[in-house]
Amino acid sequence: MTSDESLDRLARAVRSVQDSLASTTVTDEAAEAAWTALETASTVLAPFRQGFTTMTDWSVLGMSRGVHTLSPGLQDAHWEEMRMTASITFTDFFHGVNGAAHGGTIPLVFDEIFGRMSTSDGVLRRAASLTVDFRSVTPINTELMIDAHLERTEGRKSWLVGTLRHGDTITAEASSLWISLRPGAL
Predict the structure, then answer these.
(1) What is the pLDDT of residue 177?
(2) Residues ≥6 apart with Cβ < 8 Å to 165
(3) For the segment 71-84, what is each residue's pLDDT rounded down to a tens digit?
(4) Mean per-residue pLDDT for 9-23?
(5) Which of 27, 57, 113, 156 counts the highest number of beta carbons within 10 A?
(6) Backbone φ, ψ for residue 68 (5° rounding)
(7) At residue 145, what are phi and psi to the nearest 5 degrees?
(8) Rounded to two decimals, what is the model's pTM?
(9) Cα–Cα dist 15/35, whole Å
(10) Can you give the residue ranges of every domain in the chain?
(11) Fold designation for 58-180
């Protein structure tokens, strides 16, 4: 198993814990067993923590920097330069009300995808704006499709757009403006 596969498996396990915690009642004994296991896992991972520092050498953009489990994982992601398609499932952890994904998680997903796309060419960019239009209910525990791409670039400005779909129905559209930083900028 490669380190990427191991990290992916670990991320799936953390997301599974998040789902279980979000959708269950638990006995004191089960809670104690779970927190003991999680404290052990944290102790095992602690020596490998890289920490986040301000970097001025952007050649490290492609290196593994861990996994953000606050947003759902992408499945079958296809990246081609400044375009990405993938399937995504908002699980129980992302439940808002009445079988729909929490509205705050949808901009988070677009921000993460646009952020990865915006640095994929080795140029550091920062988000200047992100607009999400909710078009329809985004269901949980249902496979959805997400598509994002670079719409245009003018000087230091790059506009990225994306859609989230449930079948033929667009549940959300996003547009964002990213600014290329000058050398040495944070």
Answers:
(1) 97
(2) 144, 145, 146, 147, 171
(3) 888 899 998 878 99
(4) 79
(5) 113
(6) -95, 110
(7) -115, 140
(8) 0.78
(9) 15
(10) 3-48, 58-180
(11) Thiol Ester Dehydrase; Chain A (3.10.129)
Cα–Cα nearest to 82, from 113, 58, 108: 113
- Average pLDDT over every residue of 123-131: 93
Average pLDDT over residues 110-119: 90
Q: Residue 38, SS3?
A: helix
Tell me how long the chain is.
186
**Six-digit token string for 163:** 């859609």
- Which has the closest alpha carbon to 121: 82, 150, 157? 82
Q: Which two tokens stand for residue 6?
A: 């191991």
Q: What is the pLDDT of residues 128-146, one digit of tens each?
A: 999 999 999 999 999 999 9
Retrieve residue 111's tokens: 């921000």
Q: Are 172 and 138 in contact (CB under 8 A)?
A: yes
